[in-house]
Design a protein that fits this description.
The structure holds two protein chains of two kinds. Helix content of chain A is 33%, strand content 30%. Chain A is α/β, with parallel strands linked by helices. The longest helix of chain A is centred in the last third of the chain and has 16 residues. Chain A is built from seven helices and eleven strands. Chain A has a single domain, classed as 3-Layer(aba) Sandwich (Rossmann fold), CATH 3.40.50. By secondary structure, chain B is an alpha+beta fold. Chain B folds into two domains: 195 residues, no CATH class; 191 residues, no CATH class. In chain B, the strands form two sheets. Chain B has a six-stranded mixed beta barrel, surrounded by four helices. A two-stranded antiparallel sheet of chain B has the order 11-12. In chain B, helix 2 crosses helix 14, helix 2 runs antiparallel to helix 15 and helix 13 crosses helix 16. The chains are: A alpha/beta, B alpha+beta. Chains A and B meet through helix 2 and helix 3 of A and helix 1, helix 13 and helix 16 of B. Chain A: It comes from Bradyrhizobium archetypum.
Chain lengths: 239, 412
C-alpha cells in the first residue's frame, strides 16, 4: 500500500486587506512517499502559495496540511519551525545561501540548527552530500565563488541535510541556464527515486513532464492533473 | 549556541569598519565613565578625608537634644510645666573625667576634653570673631590631626608662653600676625586677654583656618568666665564611618548631645548626594548614548540581512534563535568595546592624576585626586553591556518578526 507523505485538505489561503484576495482556493491533494510532483500554472495562479502552505512556511486560512498523517494546523510557530527543520527541505528560485559562509557551512546550517549530530558526523554528511552533487572541490568556497548552477546544487544539498521526508522546490531552475537546469532536475528526480517526496513548482512544461504527476493550478484551484502512465503523463482531469 | 555565535561572529567580522565604530563608541562611553567616577569619588574622598582629619569624629556638648522633663512631671501625670528658665545653671559637662573614663572602656577610639567658647581677636585694628578651643596638648594628639597640621611651632608650645594660642594660617594672614606676635582676645563677658601666637596650623578647610584658635584649657575657661569648666568632649574613632552609630550610643549613655561629623556636616553631605545623582545621571547618559552606535550597527545589519533572516526562518530556525544572533553580535561589540574602554578609562585616570591644580582655598598646588576602584569598571562595563543588549534587541525583534514568505517572494 502506498504511504501518503503529505496531504492537503480543502486548503484555502486568503489575503485580508482593503482588497481581499484568495491565493489558494480549496485545494485537496495527497502526495505519496517517493513521489515527484510538479505544480504548474500561469503566473499568479497560486502555485508558489500552495507550495509554501505544503512546506509549512505559511499557514492556511482554512483547511489542513498533514505531514505523514499528522495534522499541522494547530501547531505553534515554533513547532512548525521544528517540522520545517526536520521533515521539509526547501529549495528556492534563488539559492539564498548565506553569503559569508562556505558551501559546506551552508549545508551544515540545518544540521547545526537541529543539533542532533556530532560536529564530525555533520561535516562527514555535509561533505558526502556536496560530493554526491559534484561539489566536493567547492566545499570551502563561498557562494560568490560559485556558478549559478553550483549554488543551486549547494542549496539542494542544504535542503537534504537533515534527511527530510519532503523536498519542496519553488522554481529551482528559474534562474539557471539549460545545462544547470538539466543537472538540477536530474538531481531532484534522483532524490525522488531514492524514496524522498519531491514537490516542485515550475513554469517549464518539459521539466514538469518528467515528474510522476503534474498538477496544473489556475486561480488557486487545481485545473488539471496528469499522471505518469508508462513513459508519459496522461491527463486525468480534475480530482 | 555555537551556530548562533558563528553566524554572529561572521556578521561582525565581515563588517570591520562598522564594528570598530561600534566598539569605539562603547569604549569611549566606558572609558570616560570610569574616568568621571574615579575623579568624582577621588575628589569626594579627599575632601571627606580632610574633613574627617580636621574635625573630631564625635563631639559631646554640654547640652541636651531636647528639654529634659522635670521631676514633678515624671512623678505626676497631671503636672505640666512651661516656660522654665535655667537660672544660675553652671555650664559644662558634669564629672568629665568620669564620663571620659567610662567612654574609653568601650568606644573604638579615644576621647579628649576641651573648652569651646567664642571670642573676638583684635590686632592692628582688625577685629574678627573666632572660635576658641581650649585643649590638652597631650590628649589632643589622640583625637585630632592638629599636631600634623602645624605649619609653624608645635602643640607643646602652648605651654611655653603665657596665654599662648595657635591660629590658622588664613586667619594669621588676615590679621597680619606672625608667630611670636601678641594679639588681644576679647571674651563675651568683656574679659580681655593678651595672647602670644605660638604657632600656625593649616587644616585645608577654609572656614576652620579662618576662624579657629586653640589654646590651653585655662585661657579658654578664663574667656568663658567659668574656671574649671569642660564643655566639650571630642572623640576620634578607629573607623570614622562608624561615627553616627557610636554617637547615638554615646548620647544614650551620657544624655549629652553627641554630634557625629556626618551630622555636623549634613548639609555638605546632602550636597554630595545631589552631586552623585547628577554625575550618575550624566554617566548613565554617556553609556546610553554610546550604545546608540551599537543600535545603529545592528539596525543596519538586520536590514541588510533580511533575506538571510527569512532563509534561516524558512529552514526551521526559531524566531528567538535568529533574534539571539543579533543580540550576540551586539554583545561581541559590547564586550570588546568594554575591554578597550577599561584600558582607556585606566589611562585617562592615570593621565588626570598627573595633572596638578592650584587650590585657592589652601593656597597649594595639588594633584587631581583619582580613586581607583574595580567597582567602577564592573558597573560601567555591566551597564554598557546591558545597554548594548537592549540596543540590539529592538531592531532584532523587528527584523525577525518579518514573515519569511514576504521576503522570499520579494527576492524572487
Amino acid at each position: 500500500m502506498t504511504e501518503v507523505a503529505l496531504q492537503a485538505v480543502e486548503l484555502v489561503r486568503r489575503i485580508e486587506g482593503d482588497v481581499a484576495h484568495t491565493l489558494v482556493n480549496g485545494i485537496d491533494l495527497a502526495v505519496n512517499k517517493g513521489e515527484f510532483v510538479a505544480i504548474t500554472g500561469p503566473s499568479g495562479s497560486g502555485k508558489s502559495s500552495l507550495l509554501y502552505l505544503l512546506g509549512l512556511l505559511d499557514a492556511p486560512s482554512e483547511g489542513e496540511v498533514m505531514i505523514c498523517g499528522q495534522p499541522t494546523s494547530k501547531l505553534s510557530e515554533s513547532e512548525r519551525a521544528d517540522v520545517r527543520l526536520t521533515r521539509c527541505g526547501f529549495v528556492f528560485q534563488f539559492h539564498f545561501l548565506l553569503p559569508e559562509f562556505t558551501s559546506l557551512d551552508n549545508v551544515l546550517l540545518p544540521m547545526r540548527a537541529a543539533g542532533k549530530m556530532a560536529e564530525g558526523e555533520m561535516r562527514e554528511r555535509g561533505l558526502a552530500l556536496l560530493s554526491s552533487l559534484g561539489l566536493a572541490e567547492h566545499a570551502n568556497k563561498r557562494p560568490n565563488q560559485l556558478s549559478g548552477g553550483q549554488r543551486q546544487r549547494v542549496a539542494i544539498a542544504r535542503a537534504l541535510a537533515n534527511r527530510p521526508e519532503i523536498i519542496v522546490a519553488d522554481e529551482p531552475t528559474g534562474a539557471l541556464d539549460t545545462k544547470s537546469t538539466e543537472q538540477v532536475f536530474s538531481i531532484l528526480r534522483d532524490i525522488a527515486d531514492h524514496g524522498q517526496t519531491v514537490i516542485v513548482v515550475t513554469h517549464d512544461p518539459a521539466l514538469a513532464a518528467r515528474a510522476d504527476r503534474r498538477i496544473h493550478i489556475v486561480d488557486g484551484k487545481i485545473a488539471e492533473i496528469a499522471m505518469r502512465d508508462g513513459g508519459e503523463l496522461v491527463c486525468e482531469g480534475v480530482s | 549556541m555555537k551556530l548562533l555565535f558563528n553566524i554572529a561572529w561572521t556578521h561582525v567580522s565581515t563588517r570591520v569598519r562598522q564594528t570598530l565604530v561600534g566598539m569605539a563608541g562603547v569604549a569611549m562611553g566606558v572609558g570616560f565613565t570610569i574616568m568621571m567616577a574615579g575623579l568624582m569619588q577621588g575628589s569626594q574622598i579627599d575632601f571627606l578625608r580632610q574633613l574627617v582629619d580636621t574635625m573630631p569624629h564625635i563631639t559631646i556638648e554640654d547640652e541636651r537634644r531636647s528639654v529634659p522633663t522635670q521631676p514633678a512631671e515624671q512623678e505626676y501625670a497631671a503636672v505640666q510645666m512651661a516656660d522654665i528658665a535655667n537660672v544660675g545653671k553652671r555650664p559644662g559637662i558634669k564629672y568629665p573625667e568620669s564620663v571620659m573614663s567610662s567612654l574609653r572602656s568601650w568606644i573604638p577610639g579615644d576621647v579628649a576634653p576641651s573648652v569651646k567658647t567664642t571670642a573676638i581677636i583684635d590686632h592692628g585694628g582688625a577685629r574678627i570673631g573666632i572660635t576658641l578651643t581650649g585643649i590638652d596638648p597631650r590628649r589632643e594628639v589622640h583625637v585630632s590631626k592638629l599636631a600634623a597640621q602645624m605649619r609653624e611651632g608645635k602643640l607643646d608650645d602652648l605651654s611655653r608662653a603665657p596665654n599662648a594660642i595657635i591660629i590658622g594660617e588664613a586667619l594669621a594672614e588676615k590679621l597680619g600676625v606672625k608667630t611670636g606676635n601678641t594679639v588681644l582676645l576679647v571674651g563675651g563677658q568683656g574679659t580681655q586677654l593678651n595672647s602670644t601666637v605660638a604657632g600656625l596650623f593649616r587644616s585645608g578647610l577654609k572656614r576652620v583656618d579662618e576662624s579657629q584658635i586653640y589654646s590651653l584649657a585655662g585661657p579658654a575657661q578664663v574667656m568663658m568666665g567659668q574656671n574649671g569648666v569642660i564643655n566639650q568632649l571630642r572623640l576620634r574613632l578607629n573607623d570614622p564611618m562608624a561615627a553616627q552609630k557610636v554617637a547615638a550610643q554615646v548620647e544614650a549613655q551620657t544624655g549629652y548631645k553627641s554630634v557625629s561629623w556626618q551630622e555636623a556636616n549634613a548639609d555638605l553631605l546632602s550636597t554630595f548626594t545631589v552631586r552623585d545623582f547628577i554625575v550618575l545621571t550624566v554617566m548613565g547618559a554617556m553609556l546610553l548614548t554610546s550604545s546608540f552606535a551599537t543600535y545603529n550597527i545592528i539596525s543596519t545589519i538586520t536590514h541588510e540581512k533580511r533575506q538571510d533572516i527569512a532563509i534561516m526562518k524558512s529552514l526551521g530556525m526559531r524566531e528567538y534563535a535568529v533574534r539571539r544572533i543579533f543580540i550576540i553580535e551586539s554583545v561581541i561589540i559590547g564586550v570588546v568595546g568594554i575591554l578597550f574602554g577599561w584600558i582607556l578609562g585606566y589611562l585617562l585616570c592615570y593621565g588626570w592624576s598627573k595633572i596638578t591644580i592650584f587650590n585657592p582655598l589652601t593656597g597649594t598646588t595639588v594633584p587631581l585626586q583619582i580613586y581607583y576602584s574595580a567597582m567602577h569598571y564592573v558597573v560601567a562595563g555591566g551597564i554598557s553591556l546591558l545597554c548594548c543588549a537592549g540596543a540590539a534587541y529592538f531592531p532584532a525583534r523587528k527584523a525577525t518578526r518579518v514573515h519569511p514568505v514576504e521576503i522570499i517572494r520579494g527576492a524572487s
